[in-house]
Each structure stands twice: as C-alpha cells, then as structure tokens.
Specification:
The chain has 198 residues and is mostly helical. The protein has eight helices and two strands.
Length: 198
C-alpha cells in the first residue's frame, strides 16, 4: 500500500529541474566561461517568457590592458624625462631596482601621499607606477602640473576605465627631452662667444 502511494505521487509530481536549468549544460558546450557576459538575474527578472536583467545584474567585466601598452620603459628613459630621479640617485647608471627604490623619495618631493602611491603600485604594478610617477615628475618639472598627487590618482582612475594612454605621455616627454638636449649645446656654445669689439 505504501509503495503504491509513493509511486502514484511520483507519477503526478512535476519533474525536478534545477533552478538555473541544467547546471552542466550541453556536453558540446565550450569548457571555458566568458566572464565578460555573466549576468545574474533577480527573482522577478523573467517576464513575458524572456529572461531580463534585474536589479542584481552584473555589468560586463572590463578587460584591462597592460598600463604601458608595450612601451619599453628603461631606467635611462626615466632619468631622461624626470630630473627628480636623477637628482636623488647615487649613480648615473641605475638599475630597475634603484629606480623603484628611489620612487618613494620622488613622491615625497612632489607631495604625493603614501596612500596615492600605494594605490598606484597595487593597481598598475611597481614598475608601471614608477613610470607613471616619472611622467608626473616630468610634466611637473615643465610647469604643466599643479597637483602631482591629483594627477597620479587620476592616472589610476583612467587605467581602471581603460582610458590611460601612458605610452603616449611617455613618448611625448621623451620627444621633448630630446629636443631640449639638442638645443642645449647651442646655448652653451653661445655663452662662450665674446662680443666683438671691432
């Protein structure tokens, strides 16, 4: 009697279906998941037979590019565009480690807070943050930046939205440094020319 009752209940009960549908999906589905298209649906998100994003929807994940976008930044380039580094280093041919170690001292000279510098290092990476700092220092030395702390913080924000083009900034500073270097010998020579008395 009990067995017949259970069998009768199973016959009339709706089939058990996972709340999210088949959790494994088709065996022919790709084995990787594209996180750029993940959408979480709220309970009332299904309307008119269509799944619609509800208030719990997750926006597509932004794929961040490498901060330097492949631009090769060397210690020599840092020294060329940012004289503040050159003034604080004990050697004319520093290593990458030397440049990174002196970066915090450059921050202090530019009144960049420890919080801003730490955030830049965590978000961009130590060497990339140092390159960004060199860009800030170079523009500050040229009189183009009133708030180095604000500019570095803004760079981090731009990176997080995919709008930071640090490679362009560094390339521009490098071009400017080359132009200044080309003009310097001419200025030095002119200072040695004595006015003619004849």
């Amino acid at each position: 009697m009990m067995r017949e009752t259970i069998r009768a209940l199973l016959d009339v009960a709706p089939p058990l279906v996972a709340a999210e549908g088949d959790p494994w999906g088709s065996l022919e589905r790709p084995l990787n998941t594209d996180t750029n298209h993940i959408i979480i649906l709220s309970e009332d998100a299904v309307a008119d037979g269509e799944a619609k994003p509800g208030p719990c929807s997750v926006q597509p994940v932004l794929e961040l590019t490498e901060p330097l976008r492949g631009f090769p930044v060397t210690p020599a380039l840092i020294l060329r565009i940012a004289p503040q580094f050159r003034d604080l280093l004990p050697t004319a041919k520093p290593s990458y480690r030397d440049i990174i170690d002196v970066a915090w001292h450059v921050c202090r000279h530019l009144s960049i807070s420890q919080d801003t510098w730490g955030t830049a290092c965590l978000t961009l990476g130590r060497w990339e943050a140092t390159a960004a700092l060199a860009a800030v220092a170079g523009r500050h030395a040229a009189g183009e930046v009133r708030s180095p702390n604000g500019l570095l913080r803004r760079m981090v924000q731009l990176y997080e939205t995919g709008e930071l083009y640090l490679d362009r900034t560094l390339r521009s500073l490098m071009t400017r440094a080359s132009q200044v270097a080309e003009q310097s010998p001419t200025k030095q020579m002119s200072s040695y020319i004595q006015p003619s008395i004849y």
